[in-house]
């Protein structure tokens, strides 16, 4: 079995734009434990108060499947491990495992540490031996190992032997600068595996877009521990991405690391970490991205309908994902029939309706509409072509005022709207945080008396994009709105050269889809 070692809570937090709170870190630790990750590196307790607080918080929390590990450096030069403050902090963390890093590249020993080569080896051996007598497991991160090995293989090997002879449970070979190529990793790991008896691990950074490949090559060459972070978070260009490594090991290389049931939690874990990092989920990420098993070209969809293997390298359900078929101006008949079946609409044998929807779809996308992230608007488009789309209300007119009276104060936004609803004319007004918010508030205020179910609808996301074509302030804009009612989420779209009109289209579709959805669910 390949051991998985996650360093999201330490290496991952060094990424630009990421700052986890102590509570975030504890929640992620429990999610990783639930995934069956063998080792969770919680942080460097000797470097900052937040990591000290995290380890204190974890003392009262039980991990079922994972071992919590603290991280730090070897002792300082000229000081025994028993007297080194950082080493003492590692022990005081209470973590049952400890990882220390040490220098394996002569350049770093001479320029960064400024100690003799022999003293560096003693620092490694002394620290590992001291910790090994006091904690259950000790791992040695051989920092800059590959660069050091290419520069002076004898010294790099002497460094990891010092750790191995002192009792390190794993010797982890680190591509710290992220510049080593997969063919180099394969050769070097094989050389090391023939020369040392201790188990080997791999810790790769992604500066040359090779971290995942380097990790897989290292395992193929003899490493039995793979280190990385969820979603590849990490300093500079990131660390090896466990969301790609785990399925590649298990499904492609047949190297067991977690159970099949836990592998199906991979997508949810990826999204959970993105949410706590307050970052959008990377839709094009392999295995766990929304687009990983999404098909757009008509020829592709036609083949996938017959056999998913034609354009999918694994079954998406194995990692908790799903197959998606996109609708766009590239869509063919197969796309449309597939999407119709998803919505419970039978278009087989209705070639006239299919052609009408395809014609409308291509014309609307030529104007700038995009339905790949607005499938609710697309379903309403289908219902309109089927002559089944209900008219829940009719706009008589609206007025939106955005007024700024003082330079040092924000503008005020107000909207007034007149609708015909169920034979009655409703006239309402509302203020809001900006003109679109004011219009949304006025629209809802007018409809709540007739459709109280709309009170559960929340606007979750609002995006405005300039449509390619006319430049400047006269350009068309596309508005994508994501809404939810606590049970479901759906996307809608609007396009116009007026941002308020585009927003109106998307907002109307959002509310109409809620009413349509609720009616469809009723027996």
Mean pLDDT equals 89
Q: What is the percent of helical residues?
A: 40-55%
Strand content: 15-25%
CATH architecture of the domain at 3-258: Alpha-Beta Barrel
Low-confidence segments, given as residue ranges, are none
Number of strands: 16
Gyration radius, rounded: 29 Å
How is the CATH topology of the domain at 3-258 named?
TIM Barrel
Helix count, DSSP H or I runs of 4 or more residues: 18
Distance between the termini: 51 Å
Q: According to CATH, what is the class of the domain at 3-258?
A: Alpha Beta
Strand numbers in spatial order across the main sheet: 1-2-3-4-5-6-7-8
Kindly name the structural category: alpha/beta
What sort of overall outline do the alpha carbons produce when their principal axes are compared?
Answer: elongated
The major pleated sheet works out as: 8 strands, parallel, barrel
What is the assigned CATH homologous superfamily of the domain at 3-258? Aldolase class I
Compile the SSE list and pairings.
Elements: E1 3-6, H1 22-35, E2 39-43, H2 49-58, E3 67-73, H3 85-92, E4 97-103, H4 106-113, H5 117-132, E5 137-143, H6 145-151, H7 153-165, E6 170-175, H8 182-195, E7 200-204, H9 211-221, E8 225-228, H10 242-252, H11 260-263, H12 266-276, E9 294-295, H13 298-306, E10 324-325, H14 333-342, H15 351-367, H16 375-385, E11 394-403, E12 412-421, E13 424-432, H17 435-447, E14 458-466, E15 477-484, E16 489-496, H18 499-521
Helix pairs in contact: 1-2, 1-12, 5-7, 6-7, 8-9, 13-14, 17-18
